[in-house]
Amino acid sequence: MDKIKNYFDSLIKMEAGDWDIFSSMLSKAVFSKRSLILEMGKTERYLSFIEKGIVRFNIPKLDYDFTFGFAFENSFVSAYDSFLTQTASSYNLEAITDCVLWRISYDDLDTVYKTTQVGNFIGRKAIEDIFLKKMKREFTLLEDSAKTRYVNLMREQPELINNIPLKYLASYIGIRPQSLSRIRKEIS
Questions:
Q1: Which of 176, 185, 173 is nearest to 144 (CA)?
Q2: Residue 170 has pLDDT above 90, yes or no
Q3: Is 116 contained in some domain?
Q4: Cα–Cα distance between 146 and 82 in angstroms, integer?
Q5: Are residues 8 and 96 in the same domain?
Q6: Considering only CA atoms, which of 9, 102, 97 is closest in space to residue 50?
Q7: Burial degree of 31 (CB within 10 A; 0-12, 13-18, 19+)
Q8: Does residue 87 lie in a domain region?
Q9: Within its chain, how far is the Cα of 186 from the centroid?
Q10: Together in a domain, 106 and 45
């Protein structure tokens, strides 16, 4: 739980009472590599902070598994559209590596909003983190070539290259695995 406390301490000084309320509502969840954190069709009940591991956002298809996002240590993860609306998710959240998450339920987060001085700040920071990653992702898909997306990914998230199967990386940057192999040969 130290990582999530350090994350918030780097952003704002939380009063001990506020931290006590917030931390008492967190539950630790451990997921093994390749296990589903949330299955498509189920409702997201938690906003989670990744203490350890990498999470993949994907839409499973019969012929092709589409990866559209990753979340890493010291960041928030959620099927946020499902979490906000409390309706079924249209995608999976999958642990790519062994993961340790600190989770707060929808109802408990609402309680934190109402009962602490920094509750809304906590929610806003989580939302901002998720939103900024989404916007950056959409912009790169529209603006950059597949090669540029891969090079930027290697520079910004080198842990991806070592911890995530190439077929997921290829899907994430919007190409087939064979095309990614050509790009990798070209730049090495």
A1: 173
A2: yes
A3: yes
A4: 30
A5: yes
A6: 102
A7: buried
A8: yes
A9: 30
A10: yes
126 shares its domain with 149: no
Which of the listed residues 130, 154, 169 is the one where a domain comes to its end?
A: 130
Q: Are residues 112 and 166 in the same domain?
A: no
Q: What is the pLDDT of residues 98-148, one digit of tens each?
A: 999 999 999 999 999 998 878 888 888 888 888 898 898 899 989 999 999
Strands 92-95 and 99-105, sheet pairing: unpaired
Residue type, 101: L
Q: Report if residue 137 sits inside a domain.
A: no
User: Are 110 and 182 found together in one domain?
Assistant: no
Give the residue numbers spanning the domain of 66: 2-130
Q: Which of 128, 127, 149, 129 is nearest to 138 (CA)?
A: 149
Give the pLDDT confidence score for residue 133 in this predicted structure. 85
- The more confident residue out of 105 and 159 is 105
| CA 175 and chain centroid, separation | 21
Tokens (6 digits) for 186:
């070209």
Q: What are phi and psi of 3, to 5 degrees?
A: -65, -40
Rg (CA), the chain: 17
- Dihedral angle sign, alpha carbons of residues 95, 96, 101, 105: negative
As for how many domains the chain has, the answer is 2
155-181: average pLDDT: 88
Residue 126 and residue 148 share a domain: no
Contact assessment for residue 89 and residue 46, using Cβ atoms and an 8 Å cutoff: no
